[in-house]
Amino acid sequence: MADIIDGKAIAEDVVAKVKTQTATLAEHGVTPGLAVVIVGEDPASQVYVASKSRRAKECGFHSVQHSLPAETSEDALVALVEELNADPAIHGILVQLPLPGHIDEARIIQTIDPDKDVDGFHFINVGRLGTGALDSAFVPCTPAGAMLMLERVRGRDLSGLSAVVIGRSNIVGKPMANLLLAANATVTVAHSRTKDLPALAATADILVAAVGRPEMVRGDWVKPGATVIDVGINRIPAPEKGEGKTRLVGDVAFAEAKERAGAITPVPGGVGPMTIAMLMANTLTSAFRTAGLEPPAF
Ligand code: NAD
Q1: DSSP assignment, residue 240?
Q2: Which Pfam families does UniProt cross-reference here (predicted)?
Q3: If one looks up domain 141-272 in CATH, what number appears?
Q4: What is the distance in A from the centroid of ligand 1 to the CA of 231?
Q5: Which part of the chain has CATH 3.40.50.10860?
Q6: Residue spans in the chain of domains classed CATH 3.40.50.720
Q7: What's the whole-number mean pLDDT along residues 166-180?
Q8: Judging by DSSP bridges, how do beta strands 33-39 and 62-68 pair with one another?
Q9: CA angle 238, 234, 152 (to 5 degrees)
Q10: Cis amide linkage into residue 98, ω under 30° from 0
Q11: 55 is in an annotated binding site
């Protein structure tokens, strides 16, 4: 039976450290500033943005939220990002994705100052991560959080371990693979065109699922003793809870996988809570760098 890696508890540890370090920064006259920008009314995005702003306030940050109407033009959004780039009180800028169809997301992301790009999506940060320049990169929050969870089980050096990442998105799969590589794991990235995925997954000491398909990874895909990191968040019908009710599941069939894994992250309460905690950590890091101080390690 696997150990369950408690994402809520690890996220609280991260946030506690962010709060302490924010107090340290205050002695230097610096308050970390996070600006969150949302365009349109997407209900899921509204919930994410509200919790990001709330967490930032709780950490003692200067927290600013810009909620723009869905019909905002691309040029107006570029102008706002440029204004935030120039604002010395802002250390982190997050533009909530997805943006409405008439706005070119790539243009917006590339407009963000790379040194305020706390989501880690700008080419400069992707390049820093890809070349192993982790001291200057901003690492995307979800894979950064997944690595912290993995570290609790396997330590920082993954030499000799094989890792399989299922999913090759720019937000999760690819940065996760780069982080695992930087930690000396032997990494394979699998995706929708991979042949015989169950057999490949079963070779992994570290198995990361970032697909978006409910419970796709079955128990017999898991190598006995493996560490399983389930990034997936999928809402499925739960008629057992009542008519029209739903519940969240990961990309891994948890009940089966926990019988074989050495350690596993649950959904909910696994990688999910880590994402916002790492956003706070990245914003703090940015404020330390701007102040010319060495940022704390997380
Ligand atoms: P995405 O849709 O951008 O990418 C999915 C990847 O899965 C693709 O690379 C695709 O090739 C691969 N894939 C699809 N079907 C497959 C199959 N049958 N076999 C193997 N690979 C397959 O998704 P994403 O943004 O990377 O997100 C993945 C999951 O992680 C989603 O469930 C999402 O909700 C979740 N997520 C969670 C957090 C968090 O905070 N915990 C953050 C981001 C994403």
Answers
A1: G
A2: THF_DHG_CYH, THF_DHG_CYH_C
A3: 3.40.50.720
A4: 8
A5: 30-113
A6: 141-272
A7: 98
A8: parallel
A9: 115
A10: yes
A11: no
- Report the alpha-carbon distance of residue 107 to residue 64 in Å, rounded: 22
Is the pTM here over 0.85, yes or no? yes
Report CA 110 to chain centroid distance, whole Å.
Answer: 19
Residue having the nearest C-alpha atom to atom 22 of ligand 1 = 192
Beta strand 92-95 with 33-39: parallel, antiparallel or unpaired?
parallel
The DSSP 8-state label assigned to residue 49 in this structure reads H
CATH 3.40.50.10860, domain 30-113, yes or no: yes
CA 259 – CA 182 distance, rounded (Å): 30
User: Which pLDDT score, from 0 to 100, does residue 95 have?
Assistant: 98
> 210 CB under 6 A from ligand 1?
yes
Catalytic residues: 52, 96, 119
**Mean pLDDT computed over 224-231:** 98
Arithmetic mean of pLDDT, 207-212: 98
Give the per-residue pLDDT at 92: 98
**Rounded alpha-carbon distances, angstroms, from residue 167 to 163, 172, 261, 294:** 13, 8, 20, 34
Task: Write down the residue that tokens 């003692």 correspond to.
Answer: 60
